[in-house]
């Protein structure tokens, strides 16, 4: 039996980050750390990406579901939505660390972020 050493992912959190975590279909974990979205590879417990665009504390994160077949020529597109306490929602291309969309309804608080069952995802060539 192999014993594992406990590992810690560092980062300062605020009480507003509570619940801002999602484990994606591809095995990556995304969580809010102050106003940054952190992406972790849990197998090696290593931060692989930090997404910095929010000006306020991140309160929700949600991985997008993939609904089409993949092969070597058509790889997974890592998309993630994140929301902050000021009511801004960002959609991220995680691999490139860029936002692909931003939504806001004034400064209303975000109640939740959800993927729709019948979402229509179109791939860009």
Quick summary of this structure?
The termini are far apart. The protein is mainly β and 125 residues long. It has a four-stranded antiparallel sheet, with no helix packed on it. The chain has a four-stranded antiparallel sheet with strand order 5-6-7-8, with no helix packed on it.
What does this structure look like?
With 125 residues, the chain is mainly β. The protein is built from no helices and eight strands. The strands form two sheets. The chain has a four-stranded antiparallel beta sheet, with no helix packed on it. The mean pLDDT is 82.
- Taken as a percent bin, the fraction of beta residues is 35-45%
How many beta-strand segments? 8
The sequence of SSEs as H and E is EEEEEEEE
Mind telling me the C-alpha Rg? Answer: 15 Å
Q: Estimate percent helicity.
A: under 10%
Strand order across the largest sheet: 1-2-3-4
- Helix count equals 0
What is the structural class? Answer: mainly beta
What is the rounded distance between the termini? 48 Å
Low-pLDDT residue spans: none
Outline: globular
Report on the biggest sheet: 4 strands, antiparallel
Mean of residue pLDDT values: 82
